[in-house]
């Protein structure tokens, strides 16, 4: 199973992240969702991180985001 995040930035750029959900990172994915919701509701600055295979990750500055759409995708990660 994975969580799909679609971001629309203030400059019109769209970006999608697919985050696999595992037993090990389940609470971290929930924390990302909570951070996104809080940042959007309260207009607070936040930076969220999406892991990628290997080392490193993707960082999103929520102050640059105007819309986030999320979806849970059942089945195996691609």
Question: Your description of this structure?
Answer:
With 78 residues, the chain is α+β, with helices and mostly antiparallel strands. Helix content is 22%, strand content 44%. It contains one helix and five strands, in the order ββαβββ. It has one helix spanning 26-42, and strands at 2-9, 14-20, 47-51, 57-61, 65-73. The strands form two sheets. It has a three-stranded antiparallel β-sheet, covered by helices on one side. Strands 3-4 form a two-stranded antiparallel ribbon. The mean pLDDT is 88.
Concise structural overview:
The chain has 78 residues and is an alpha+beta fold.
Please tag this protein with its features:
two-stranded antiparallel sheet; alpha+beta; 1 helix; 78 residues
Distance between the termini: 10 Å
Oligomer state of the chains in this structure: single chain
| Major sheet characteristics | 3 strands, antiparallel
DSSP strand content: 35-45%
């Amino acid at each position: 199973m994975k969580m799909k995040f679609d971001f629309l930035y203030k400059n019109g750029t769209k970006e999608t992240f697919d985050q696999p959900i595992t037993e090990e990172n389940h609470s971290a994915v929930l924390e990302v969702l909570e951070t996104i919701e809080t940042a959007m509701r309260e207009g607070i600055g936040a930076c969220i991180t999406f892991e990628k295979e290997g080392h490193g990750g993707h960082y999103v500055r929520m102050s640059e985001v105007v819309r986030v759409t999320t979806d849970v995708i059942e089945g195996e990660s691609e």
